[in-house]
Amino acid sequence: MIKIGVPSKGRLMEKTFDWFGQRGLAMRRTGNEREYSGTVEGADGVELVLLSAGEVPRELAAGRIHLGVTGTDLVREKLADWAEIVAEVAPLGFGHADLIIAVPNAWVDVDTLDDLDSAAAAFRAEHGFRLRIATKYHRLVRDFLTANGVADYQLVDSQGATEGTVKNLTAEAIADITSSGETLRANHLKILSDSVILKSEAMLFRSKLADDPALDGLLGKLGF
């Protein structure tokens, strides 16, 4: 049985269903929103597994699903050696967002990563602790800042409403996913000009740890 992991709610689920439907696999959720079950028509031996987008990388890595749809940001953040564990099959053409670093608009002299590095050093000298950057993307942000020579910061965990952490005085800057930038502007934050860490989008992934003789045939049916 080939298992396909799909986000369980919202526009991401609907767009994923549409994408598969255009390729001959009709997916449908059954039951109410609290029931994570669904059906697949158009191919034998295929099971739909409804998960949160954040759970898909874990299930791919465990080999419990053969194919999965989630954002490239989540795979790269949650799977350290992601390229050894999963393969990118195809971008789905939606779910585009950038992982960026943003600081308060009031920091008029901070527009680049070099400026952030200088501001972080000054902040530590003045306050006696490191500048706090709120994020849920610890691996990606840490690697990016290290590669760009930014020091004297600490990452603080934020699993929701990251843009509000500066206003709430629990962080001085943020690193988060944004698509339109409207929420950043509403919270008086600006994106550093050279701080795009990753351009993310919804992607169909194949687990390298799950195998089924029929998988190549299914991918062929989908056009890959």
Description of the structure:
- This protein has eight helices and 13 strands.
- The model has no long low-confidence stretch (mean pLDDT 93).
- The protein is α/β, with parallel strands linked by helices.
- It folds into two domains: 2-96 and 201-222, Periplasmic binding protein-like II (D-Maltodextrin-Binding Protein, domain 2), CATH 3.40.190; 97-199, Periplasmic binding protein-like II (D-Maltodextrin-Binding Protein, domain 2).
- This is ATP phosphoribosyltransferase.
What is the tally of helical segments? Answer: 8
List the helices and strands in order: EHEEEHEHHEEHEHEEHEEEH
Low-confidence spans: none
Name the helicity range.
25-40%
Give the total of beta strands.
13
- Quote the CATH topology of the largest domain: D-Maltodextrin-Binding Protein, domain 2
From the 3D coordinates, which CATH architecture of the largest domain would you assign? 3-Layer(aba) Sandwich
For the record, what CATH class of the largest domain applies? Alpha Beta
Pathway: Amino-acid biosynthesis; L-histidine biosynthesis; L-histidine from 5-phospho-alpha-D-ribose 1-diphosphate: step 1/9
Enzyme class: transferase
GO molecular function: ATP phosphoribosyltransferase activity
GO cellular component, one term: cytoplasm
List keywords for this structure.
30% helix, D-Maltodextrin-Binding Protein, domain 2, 5-stranded mixed sheet, 8 helices, 6-stranded mixed sheet, elongated, 224 residues, alpha/beta, 2 domains
